[in-house]
Design a protein that fits this description.
Elements: H1 12-37, H2 53-79, H3 81-99, H4 109-117, H5 126-139, H6 173-195
Length: 199
């Protein structure tokens, strides 16, 4: 039989001998059972090498932390930098307002400035104030500047005129000059790194 005893009609003598042999066999294997009870499970990869689960867990935790940090950064960027600054400014303004007393008097300069800056519908002086502000801005007489896509660099850092159509009509000398300068700088940096490599 699968248990190791004989099947069929068996005498008591044979049965006793088989039971003693089974007990002896169990006693011999008792120390193996004790050893295996407190031993740790060995995990192996496909090639048969032992796996260090603690190290793998630590690496996974580090990857998860890096991913969460990167996701947090992307969420911050996705919200928009200008919107973030505006939100920060709103919080600072709210804190500043909370620090002021609840009762505000007629000589409160912040309140006066805020009320003066508000534009109200049907205000007869609003048009006049707008015209005056526009006239003050016009008096500065700023020359018109080019505001289009970034122009190609030139060695004199001269910005193109405001009527430029964005077409580069040069013979390519400026680009070649900047390429030579960049190449020379890269070679010098590489030479420096090579010279201090063994220090």
């Amino acid at each position: 039989m699968s248990s190791g005893v004989k099947a069929g009609l068996v005498s008591a003598d044979v049965l006793r001998r088989e039971q003693q042999e089974l007990r002896r066999h169990e006693r011999n294997n008792k120390h193996l059972e004790e050893e295996s009870r407190h031993s740790e499970t060995v995990f192996r990869d496909k090639s048969g090498r032992k796996r260090d689960l603690a190290q793998e867990r630590l690496e996974q935790q580090q990857k998860a932390e890096a991913k969460s940090e990167r996701d947090e950064q992307y969420a911050k960027w996705g919200k928009g930098l200008a919107q973030g600054r505006q939100q920060q400014q709103n919080v600072e303004d709210a804190i500043k307002e909370m620090q002021k007393p609840l009762a505000r008097y007629i000589d409160d300069q912040d309140l006066d400035r805020m009320l003066r800056e508000q534009e109200r519908e049907g205000d007869p002086m609003a048009e006049f104030i707008k015209k005056r502000k526009a006239k003050e801005n016009k008096e500065k007489k700023e020359k018109p500047r080019y505001n289009g896509p970034a122009p190609p660099l030139n060695r004199f850092n001269i910005w193109p005129g405001h009527r430029w159509d964005g077409v580069d009509r040069s013979n390519g000398f400026e680009q070649q000059r900047f390429a030579r300068i960049a190449n020379k700088k890269a070679v010098q940096e590489l030479a420096y790194k090579w010279s201090v490599e063994d220090m």
